[in-house]
Amino acid sequence: MTPEQIRARLEALREGDLPVHGGRTLAYVYDAGLTEVDALAREAVAAFAGSNGLDPTAFPSLLAMENDLVAFARTLVDGPDTMVGTLTSGGTESCLLAVQGARDARPDVAAPSIVVPDTVHAAFHKAGHYFGVRVVVVPTGPDHRADAAAMAAAIDESTVLVVASAPSYAHGVVDPVPAIAAAAAERGVRCHVDACIGGWVLPYAARLGRPVAPWTFAVEDVTSISTDLHKYAYAPKGASLLLHRTPALRRPQYFAHAGWPGYTMLNATMQSTRSGGPIAGAWATVRAIGDAGYLALAERALAATDAIAAGISALDGLALVASPESTLVAAVASGALDVFTVCDEMAARDWFVQPQLSYDGQPPSLHVAISAATDPAAFLAALGSAVDAAREAGPVPVDPGVADLLRTLDPATLGDEEFDLLLAAGGLAGADGGLGLPERMAPVNALLDVAPPALREAVLVAFLDRLARPPAVPFATGT
């Protein structure tokens, strides 16, 4: 293919993606609405894409930029002079490393565990799965915050880490960090605060005079914090920070191996080779926006959040799950209004809102992560129209017999044929076996919602597995 053909094909492929600018994709991407900063960041990514963060002595520029970003973050999280940090590929890697470091700091614990609220991000369950660490889940209270007393009671001799959120992703509220951290410290256990969402918003919210519960290193017993640069620092994708109160707390995170004929491997992250692109993109973004710029962006995003929360509360049939304490809003539907259909109707109006399935007696909800570029008036106009259309359409029916069947299925006993049937029943596969998402996802989500979590996971893994298979002819026209 010629360069012109490749550019045209890339543009054609991108037509099927959600937009990353404009503030209408309210999950996965975060938009400051600053065109010049975005262009500058892309230049930085391109300029350093071939650089390798594996060896900071070979590419000292990357180390200098990473240290600059950690120093900037120190001012936001009340970090002491001893605070250190590592730039990772995203929030999940930051959370994984927090668990891995805590586990490896306690070689005396044969079967380590971590204590988390049920609202903790799934990344911590992924860490437990990867690293052989048992995850002890503590139910949250009716306010959706971690129950500090119950978490303290769950700490035992196997506990190597306790986790709190600032805020939790699903509900957008801040856990009682001081009480949780104090309970962990009393037992000699590390306390990690997952501020991947709030780390670049809550400090500015506090400066704007909004009430913010304590969550930073100003809480004496917090040992580490994760905060994402590619969320509300508005940097290009692939940049998060894992911050430790002291170098000694970070040291178990490192991996080194000299017992082979090659070079001595030394890594601070899960990755060995790390492109310098995301590091440079994040550095350029933070330097371009600066402290005053972030204060203004946070004020705009928080004002939009307030307006959207108030607008949702005023809509008949929708109610807030919790009063938002950052930039995340979740809402549930009542009566004949179906939340999954509302999500579909919003998509038809060029707004992507994220459906969240029911959990442990809690109903399904719609979820939005609001950026500085989000227009609250336009969002609420679309939402009002979507609610009217969804109410007229009525809830998505699920055959009671099908629901009962799904509740009895054991995914461990199902083979490819059974999964193919489930995918077809859910509208994720056609009669010809072809896969793809239907135009409307409400019927799919309604079926998934009545299935137990283990079956949801298995069906979606089967779907992803079938999607991620190569074409018969590589680079064929139209692929």
UniProtKB/TrEMBL annotation:
The protein's matches in Pfam families, at most eight in alphabetical order, are given as:
Pyridoxal_deC
Protein name (record): Aminotransferase class V-fold PLP-dependent enzyme
GO-annotated molecular function: transaminase activity
The UniProt similarity line reads: Belongs to the group II decarboxylase family. Sphingosine-1-phosphate lyase subfamily.
Cofactor annotation: pyridoxal 5'-phosphate
* Species, as recorded: Nocardioides humi
Question: Keywords on this record?
Answer: Aminotransferase, Lyase, Pyridoxal phosphate, Transferase
| Presence of keyword Amino-acid biosynthesis | no
Q: Which domain of life is it from?
A: Bacteria
